Backbone:
């Protein structure tokens, strides 16, 4: 973020507001019905290690302090964007908020939209830029927050001439928009915020790390001032795949192109990528891995050799067996003694 914290609110009509859901976790990606009442319990593994970023080196394409990023758009640029956006609003009950580097648009009450923009969007952007990304997205992107599934499906079709293929939300670089069914929680929102930052900072990032990092933060909070991913709904499916011996080698995972990652056993690929990132995070290695991977991206485009080096293992098959035992020992939920500070929902 820059020093200008402009958050302009433009309200066209205040419709009836649903009760505001107070969350003590930044995000929950799956519907609560899928997570069940067992969501809130303490994990068996030890508390997460504090993530302390290694010092930056000259030429690094990431920020080491919140606000030390490169902004490309002025207040006037955002004002012009909002004026054009107003002409496209599908109804008069939408609230528009400039929350750099995005514009947030929602059809909940103005107070609810403002809360999402500050306590989810701004929080996630600040924390991601603190540890990973220096550059903002190359264009001003819109974040559409639709209040329920009816609004989500209807307005996505109206605005973009396409019906969503996911009940939660998605990022479309073609439409320069993040499109969310916010009634399912803020998890998908934070996940999708990762993607335009990866696009701007690491264009050649392979899908395993792009989605691994995004899905890590589907359920997250704050530990020692840094964004921290917790175990989530992807864990049981991955554990089942491990027991069925269907999880590929890390060399295979990291070499997958978009077609292979998204179309060949997609669920296992997401789960494996997420919990590899989770393991790195818990060992205090995730930020270091990202920086080393970026620095050596030309000679190691998949990140596999960097992964071996960061892990300090010679036998990746032996590491995979150890990692699988580690994953099987995890439990779905989050560490209830590691809640974000007051004011972060």
Residues:
């Amino acid at each position: 973020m820059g020093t200008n914290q402009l958050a302009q609110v433009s309200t066209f009509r205040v419709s009836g507001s649903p009760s505001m859901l107070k969350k003590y976790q930044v995000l929950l990606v799956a519907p609560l019905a899928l997570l069940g009442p067992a969501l809130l319990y303490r994990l068996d593994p030890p508390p997460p290690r504090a993530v302390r970023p290694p010092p930056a080196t000259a030429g690094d394409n990431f920020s080491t302090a919140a606000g030390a990023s490169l902004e490309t758009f002025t207040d006037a640029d955002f004002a012009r964007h909002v004026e054009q956006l107003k002409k496209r609003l599908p109804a008069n009950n939408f609230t528009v908020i400039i929350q750099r580097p995005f514009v947030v648009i929602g059809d909940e009450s103005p107070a609810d939209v403002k809360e999402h923009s500050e306590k989810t969007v701004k929080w996630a952007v600040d924390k991601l830029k603190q540890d990973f990304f220096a550059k903002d997205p190359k264009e001003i992107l819109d974040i559409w927050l639709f209040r329920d599934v009816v609004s989500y499906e209807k307005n996505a079709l109206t605005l973009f001439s396409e019906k969503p293929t996911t009940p939660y939300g998605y990022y479309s670089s073609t439409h320069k928009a993040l499109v969310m069914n916010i009634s399912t929680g803020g998890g998908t929102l934070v996940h999708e915020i990762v993607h335009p930052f990866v696009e701007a900072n690491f264009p050649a990032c392979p899908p395993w790390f792009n989605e691994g990092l995004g899905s890590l933060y589907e359920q997250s909070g704050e530990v020692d001032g840094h964004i921290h991913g917790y175990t989530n709904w992807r864990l049981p499916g991955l554990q089942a795949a491990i027991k069925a011996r269907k999880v590929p080698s890390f060399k295979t995972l990291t070499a997958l192109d978009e077609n292979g990652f998204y179309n060949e056993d997609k669920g296992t690929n997401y789960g494996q990528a997420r919990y590899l990132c989770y393991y790195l995070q818990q060992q205090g290695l995730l930020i270091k891995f990202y920086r080393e991977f970026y620095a050596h991206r030309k000679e190691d485009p998949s990140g596999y050799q960097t992964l071996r080096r960061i892990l300090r293992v010679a036998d990746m098959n032996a590491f995979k067996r150890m990692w699988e035992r580690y994953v099987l020992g995890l439990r779905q939920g989050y560490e209830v003694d590691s809640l974000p500070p007051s004011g972060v929902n």
Q: What stands out?
A: The chain is about 40% helix and 10% strand. The first strand starts at residue 9 and ends at 11. The CA atoms of residues 58 and 295 lie 11 Å apart.
